[in-house]
Amino acid sequence: MVLDKQDRSRVLVIGGTGHIGKHIVAASVRRDNPTCVLIRDAAPAYLAKAQLLKSFIDSGVALIKGDLFDHDSLVNAIKGADAVISAVGTCQLDEQTRIVMAIKESCCTEVPAV
């Protein structure tokens, strides 16, 4: 069974510009899911990251400005998603609780245990 575009899950990837995250974004796009990436800076100083963001845009990925340390930006980004995937780096693993709190506030009824 092939789902229509409007029936596909809207995916938000947090940490989507990282080593693992960029592959998650690519896989979501290949599955034709509407995909968003939470980004801190839409005009990064590093050329490689700027090129990655351009490739995301070219493939139809929406970039959402936000930050793990800005609760309101997390909540707003999560409200538009059916699925939230965290691919934050190991130095930010303790910040997963911020993501879970934002998910809970975004009217999700269930947050699976990790």
TrEMBL record:
It comes from the Eukaryota. InterPro entries: NAD(P)-bd_dom_sf (IPR036291), NmrA-like (IPR008030), NmrA-type/Isoflavone_red_sf (IPR050608). Residues 8-105 form the NmrA-like domain. It holds the Pfam family NmrA. This is NmrA-like domain-containing protein. It comes from Triticum turgidum subsp. durum.
